[in-house]
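Lab notes, practical 5.
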Amino acid sequence: MDKSKAQLVFDKMMATDYCSQWMGIEAVTLSEGHCKIKMTVTKEMLNGFGILHGGIAYAFADSAFAFAANSYGRLSVSVTGSMSFSKSAQEGDILYAEAVALHIGYKTAEFDVNISNGSKEIYYRFRGTVYRKSDNILDL
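Output from the prediction step:
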């Protein structure tokens, strides 16, 4: 079975995305403009209060954002991103980050990312904008 363009982009990005590799990110769903990934919170990801470090939560959302934004095959780089924190994740929690395209333009695109647990309870919300370059990610 042939891999989708989104899967090929994910594979290429993950090959050298050492941060996403360190976080133990796994793909759940990949398609153009949509990405759902998962990770398990480890003790190395905790802050001094024993909860998921905000920077790690942001990095997790940013990874889903990047995979979704680049899933069309055009190199896309973040220009803005903001996050709100609703609930704290703990060691051992399995989290899912789901990125969905809100608007895809020729030069920019906007995405929402929700980070939730297996019961779809939202812990963190992210919104970001990318600049879409004309460079292709894949050599097709």
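Observations recorded by the TA: The chain has three helices and six strands. Residues 54-70 form the longest helix (17 residues).
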